[in-house]
Amino acid sequence: MKDAFDSLSCADVFSLRGKRVVLTGAAGEIGSAIAGVFAQNGASLYLTDIREPQLLEARDACLKIDGANVRAHVADQSSTDDMKAVVDGALAFFDGRVDSVIHCGGITWSRPLLEDPDVSFDAQFQTNVRSFWHLMRGLVPAMRQHGGGSVIAISSVHGHRAEGACTLYSACKAALMAMVVELSGEFGADNIRVNSVSPGWILSPVPKRHWSNFFIKPEHRADVMARVLDVENEHILQTQTLPRLGRPEDVALACLYLTSDAARFITGTDLLVDGGKLHMQPDSRSGHEQARKRLAARETLRGIVRALPQDWWINERRPVWF
């Protein structure tokens, strides 16, 4: 490996030309944004997700880019056999060489501990954490054989700080960050860089992941979203320092940086893409005006949610944490 760059032009050091990338969770908003940004910047992609229609849509969007080289593989991250098939498929597609792995796929069930069913623990850790372990075990030997590469695990600010009613999700994201630190040390001598990216609140272009989809009866969801979205967005803005909502492409560009040669001396770190959320005061004790606005927006939102008719909720019961 050369110590010096041939060129310090951004077009060169940030380029992904020739890089072979395996991306999980490619059907989601962040995953599909990563796929699009990477395809536009020259990467070849092996995309995987359990949601076939959305996965194929992400693949087809990439294939519209001149010179794109993309394969889609429908797989269930919670299945050991499926993850081994992803490894085998990616190695076959890339002729045995993989330069980058981005673990973006995952699930979240936001419930308080005493209301979380037993199946939630295994489901979340199997899908969010063990799948990453399988990818690393399967693909690191190929990366080592071909001189190194980059690995990124998509974590979350939830892995840094409690947000409420997210015990298992937060534990999964913290586990990924711990794995990143350990693996960066284990494979540094092989020139394999391992990092994580922690998004904050990211605005979804399609509100399909809104909480109402999980707790409100279908016939009332549009009404609920019309009532709460503006207040929710205002609350989110008051929990961070930057005055706009994050977007999937913000996370995608962070991944591009960590995958590119521009980040060749960065490993074992977590890159926050949260608009300053993590470092905001969690309460109003500082007397800061933004903290007061945050609390006001939160109370307004709580009032709207708690005023929703009881029979609009699934099981006709509002969860206690709302």
Break the fold down into its secondary structure elements and pairings:
Blueprint: H1 10-13, E1 20-24, H2 29-40, E2 44-49, H3 52-63, E3 70-74, H4 80-93, E4 100-103, H5 118-145, E5 149-154, H6 167-187, E6 192-199, H7 212-215, H8 221-237, H9 248-259, E7 270-273, H10 289-306
Parallel strand pairs: 1-2, 1-4, 2-3, 4-5, 5-6, 6-7
Helix pairs in contact: 2-3, 2-9, 4-5, 5-6, 8-10
Averaging pLDDT over every residue, what do you get?
89
CATH architecture of the largest domain: 3-Layer(aba) Sandwich
Number of domains: 2
Helix-strand string: HEHEHEHEHEHEHHHEH
N-C termini distance: 54 Å
Assembly context of the chains: single chain
User: At the fourth CATH level, what is the homologous superfamily of the largest domain?
Assistant: NAD(P)-binding Rossmann-like Domain
Estimate percent helicity. Answer: 40-55%
Largest sheet: 7 strands, parallel
Structural class determined from secondary elements: alpha/beta
Q: Largest sheet, order of strands side by side?
A: 3-2-1-4-5-6-7
Q: How many beta-strand elements?
A: 7
Indicate the CATH topology of the largest domain.
Rossmann fold
In DSSP terms, counting alpha (H) and pi (I) runs of 4 or more, how many helices? 10
Radius of gyration: 21 Å
Shape: globular
Assess the beta-strand content as a share of residues.
Answer: 5-15%
Low-confidence stretches: none
Q: Using the coordinates above, name the CATH class of the largest domain.
A: Alpha Beta
